[in-house]
Amino acid sequence: MSSTFRTRPPEPLPRLYRWRSNLLHAPLFFTFTALCGTLSLLVSVFDRKGRLQHRIARFWARGCLAISASPLTVHGAEILRRHPIAVYAANHTSYMDTPVIFAALPFQFRILAKTELWTLPFIGWHLNRSGQIAINTDNPRATLSSLGRAAKALRDGMPLFVFPEGGRTPDGSLQPFLSGAAYLAIRAQVPLVPIALCGVYDLLPIHTRHFYPGPVALIVGEPIPTTGMTIRQTDELTHRLRAAIQELHAPGSAAAYAVTRP
Q1: DSSP code of 224?
Q2: Cis link prior to 12 (omega < 30° from 0)?
Q3: Superfamily for domain range 8-258
Q4: Are residues 247 and 224 in contact, defined by beta-carbon separation less than 8 angstroms?
Q5: Confidence band for 259, pLDDT divided at 50, 70 and 90
Q6: By Cβ atoms counted within 10 A, which residue in 16, 17, 49, 102 is the most buried?
Q7: Per-position b or e across 27-51, b if 16+ CB within 10 A of its CB
Q8: pTM score
């Protein structure tokens, strides 16, 4: 990802952001997350298909963006409506990526995410009870089992979302991709849809706990078809996916204009 999208304001504004984050954004964010997480846990007792839990997750996501004073712009929403059953893959920039994804995608889906998230209070409870899929990249056998469950979800008609970098970027740049997203798309013979998240790194970078409010954007690229592809082409498809996401971040793209900060 180009440094064009790392546009945090210069000093002395960051001190103001830190105080505002500590006194306003963070307390509201954690309180709201606790309330929504508890509600999701309660409805999971009878919501076996996860529909109510997903609605709560979308409500939580939109609320988190409102609390962080970060308006979201979605480009390519029509692509999401045309291809509901697919593997969706985006760059991973921040803990706020998850609220952006839930706020933007207009249908129920499952996330394939690292097991560490399942240890977080409230968020982890929701992930576990709502049927999201944990993946342990340190254990090859567990990874294969997770990929098998993810492929079954796709075949059953449930869209899947993946962060192919495997973790948040430390500096805002696009990291090497793991092959899981491409593997799943080929195995299920469904499109692989590239998504670029812009401005979210600036909102909550990996090295800070403070919110830096500003506009964020999600831009959806054209789906990459996998019909007729074989597992041997997984690496090729992974390279195409990364190139597509990189191109969505190119200067002059719609997302670039949407995240201009003062």
Answers
A1: B
A2: yes
A3: Glycerol-3-phosphate (1)-acyltransferase (3.40.1130.10)
A4: no
A5: low
A6: 102
A7: eebeebbeebbebbbebbeebeebe
A8: 0.86
